[in-house]
## 1
Amino acid sequence: MSRSFGLPEFVYIVAAIRWTLLLSLVAFVGGGLVGFAVAILRTTQSRILRLLTTGYIQLFQGTPVLMQLFVFYYGFAVLFDMQVDAWPAVALAFTLYAGAFLGEIWRGSIQAIPRTQWEASACLSLDYLQQLRFVILPQAMRISIPPTVGFLVQLIKNTSIAAIIGFVELTRAGQLMVNVTFQPMVVYPLVAALYFALCWPLSLLSRFLEKGIDANLGVKRPL
Amino acid sequence: MPILALNGLSKRFGSHVALDDVSLTVEPGEVVAIIGRSGSGKTTLLRCINGLEAPDGGEIVFDGRRVERSRADLRALRREIGIVFQSLNLFPHLTVERNITLGPTIGLGLSLAEAKRRARDVLRQVDLEDKLAAAPLQLSGGQQQRVAIARSLAMRPRLMLFDEITSALDPELVGEVIGVLEKLAAEGMTMILVTHEMGFARAAADTIVFMHQGRIWEKGPPARLFTAPVTGELRSFIDAILPVTPGITHAAS
């Protein structure tokens, strides 16, 4: 006997959004910190640091998120010799995944700032960190907003992959409700609509932020 | 004592020799105009003086002290030497005022109030006091270059370098920038300019330096250099620019 799809099932699915959001947030904040460090290190003079950070980015960009997830999940299980909670493995995997992509996006944004901006600020006796802080990063930030938000949208949608190892977030909650109601054509469109409801406002926000900054610069695009 | 002495400066980019044994002294208050064809090493010379390029050989002596290539030395040097570039490179995300106060507050460690006073002073010097709150990209190219000059002046440099600062401007905007340069020269600012504005070079410079193939080919006061060039290279250079530069007469022709 299967249950029909009613309010409790609906509420169960909607409530699972919090795990999708939390995972996305952890990955975005953690990945943001990692990515920022990587972006800065990749633009420094040190060969070793550039090599290490490039290797990290290539590794995480060149392998599927699912494999990264498996490696961390089963890796943790083997290391700690027991059934582990999915949370730490999932959080770490998505953080490193996000760090690689954000690092690359932000490196590109920093390097898109003309060399003359570095030179002009150096000639005002600013040191490297001051140049970054006052001149380069504020401009790089503006460039990086659309790709960063674009990646955040990807990240939110990709957290659904965590469903495969049994982490209960939006997609997994949907699967569970399909299992009990046998109504995939009700449940999955609903799940998809909920993802859309999360991601669409972000795209709007991105456009809004860009416009605000353009107005500050006193220009219409392009910069 | 000269404020700046270059002794045997050389610089190569790969196999290309950009500077070849360049020696030059500049006295306080002197206005030096560097002329020459493109690729003759003018810009490289200027960029070596404030450390944007590292020379391969020779030495730079500023105010009696040899400049080393340490970060601290370069930072100290840039407090004393200002530069304005050909490309318009104000900081587009900052107001005109912040463009100007950034160096004095962050680079020199002055208070914001003092830096703002300087900003008003230097904007008055370039006649753009009303643009204090403007965004750089709202300004014309000529105005942007004048703000760039003001930004450099706010550091109270003892030597100013100008690298073809009118070359990227529409012709009708060149005059206002030249006007500012003339005023600075008249006020006794020590300056080295790379320029194609021969009328200005002739009128305002104490010394003309003609560069060719990375070397100082000929050097002297404008009256002599423009009217009685010694070398064939300078003569042909002057002949080439003469028809388009009013105000310069060629005695030899």
## 2
Amino acid sequence: MEYGSEVQRLFAAPLHCGELPPNVPGLASGEAEDRTQPVWVRFQLEVAEGVVRRARYRVFGCPHTIAAAERAAEWLEGRPATALAALDLREIGRALGVPAEKLGKLLRIEDALAACRRSLETRTELNDGDTTD
Amino acid sequence: MMREIYLDCAATTPVDPRVLAAMTECLEREHANPSSSHSAGRRARALVERARAAVAERLGVPPATLVFTSGATESNNLALAGMLAERGGERAHLVTSRIEHKSVLDTAKALERRGVEVTYVASDPNGRVPPDAIAAAIGPRTALVSIMHVNNETGVIQDIERIAELCRERGVPLHVDAAQSAGKLELPLARWGVALCSLTAHKLHGPKGIGALYVRDGVPIAPLFHGGEQERSLRPGTLATHQIVGMGRAFELADPAAEAPRLAALRDRLAERLLALPGVRLNGAAAPRAPHIASVSFPGAEGESLLLALDGVAVSQGSACMADSPEASHVLTAMGLGDALAQSTLRFSVGRFTTEDDVDEAAARVAAALARVRSLAAGAPAWCSA
């Protein structure tokens, strides 16, 4: 399997891989998996005043999936939580040169982030910037 | 710069310097076409026949039973398609197993599209194809049974002696893919009574691009190619003299009795170190295995990521012929491994130039890479390890 230099760089230094403390305020978590691929992704976001302060993830998956998760986490930090809806994993996949047959794995990242987004919506983080829950 | 350690000898092996010397001498001195009748051609022909005799001697068969091909993939294609064309054509029945190399399975599928009925016999959880299951699959229209000697992913050895006996009793010819076993295990083709056997040079420190098909005297097969009388018209085309010389020298040098104990000791040394890591398991552990291959599963560490993290150690995630496929190994899943565990499996294979230092250093690097990749997936559900 060929990997582009950016995939190799992100895989070698997945700075956002990890997890946030469970008691952090404004924490949203989401998981997704596809056992047939096989791939599992968990994302955690710390959202304060409607802004993603920290993004962390764990991945059981291939280097392309790990690199895409790292790129997604990089992109999210510092952005309004409403930007979650604008994150396009297909675009990240194209930028990283992910083979077409692997794009399905990347979509599990999107699913995990969608679960984060739903978690935030129930706490109105996306609506009024209220960080209490 | 990190020292590169090569543990992928089941994919291909480095050319032995003695093989290279023989090939170089041939390329420098003998350029003539071995089919030409002038003296230069006759000299080239003599080199081809000397190499054929060397391969034949290693196998204990008459030289005239060997047909040079481009490698085991072509030999497997020629064996299956060539035999089926001669024995029943589209009405014929082929018996093979689910754990064969893709060059057999894909040829079988191509034959199926032409109307041939194919039975794919399952292996047991240790990767052995039960001889009785093969016998049970043989029917009145069965034209050929094709079973590999050593599995290229797990190293598990099939009971060819018993399978050959059962085929003989039923009057059905047997084809054996011996790409992984030649030079590592004895191949008593005549005693077994197999009809066809696929061979290649590059798995035993010979050159790539050259192989052979053993065709027992009197066994009828049709050629895949047309356009010349070389190799008894079974494989027309100008003979690659230097490649054939290299194959002959490689087979001269590959003595299983001398090499197998050393290879097995290296394989076991490596396996012992890897199995000391948490959760690691050896596939086919309860079956007889070839001395050079260890298939090792690392639960919780996705294999492609483990492979990339393992920079500087050349190993494979299953077959080299499937290296770009995102699918789990058909061999490992046929042995009962789940998709995740099959994806978390690496094949380590040693060769003539592998040293104890190589396997010790590789095991240490695997331990470090494994810890890193498992940490990326910390907290993953249990199915990621099953």
